[in-house]
What does this fold into?
Amino acid sequence: MSASLRILVPVKRVIDYAVRLLNGSSVSSAFIGFLKKRVANNVQVKPRVNKTQTAVETQGVKHSMNPFDEIAIEEAVRIREGKTASAKVSDILAVSAGPPKAKDTLQTALAMGADRGLLIETTPEKEGMLEPLGVAKLLKAVVEKEDRNIVILGKQSIDDDANQTGQMLAGLLNWPQATQASKVAFEGKNVTVTREVDGGIETLRAKLPIIITTDLRLNEPRYASLPNIMKAKKKPMEKKSMADYGASEDSRLKTLKVIEPPPRQGGGKVDSVDAMISKLKELGAI
It folds into this structure.
């Protein structure tokens, strides 16, 4: 296998993270800090459950690229630019499976520096319902057909937070994997990945081909400039169907019901430690 990198970067269209922030979703302080850097204006829309209580309503809600996938695109471009690794990149292919509107997400990837786009269209009613295993099987077929030797993808998407696709893809391809990367370096066909773990820093080394999933601290994605946005419109964009890759949109899991969380109640004040202990006992906390 050639030492030049043929990179595949899967990207997902999700409800914009500015919308999620307004809903008070429980995300880490590091993630909130990352989003504050990326969000210029708050979007005055809150996610809501649809009438059938089967999913979140997506009509009329702003969508954008999954933030972790932005990091993956940025890393692929930085590798080619030689900013993070001395490796020759022959091609960066961005792929997205979704409705026709997912083309906008791919256009963003192209404006950030990807060379080609591949849109695998799904039925609109299936948007956001592809499961990690189904996506992994689809990506396996893309990797084989496009002759990729490295896949860089976000460790998770901010809608389902599954954090499974990269690991499943590595298993299906029987490739080594380095998840939650905070630093990536290349030396010939060897790849060194640094990742943060509970006990500190862990360093992994493997040979190509490899699956890498990105963490927040890997890089800060660039904004697509207006000239690059215009250039992206001239870059190749191919459309395929799930059937072209022998993949299916069928779900193995069934969502029984989606409901909004109850509104948070305000806290109370106590005058002494004894009063606090009594209140905690009353609530059954101790």
User: Anything to note?
Assistant: Confidence is low (pLDDT under 50) at residues 31-44.
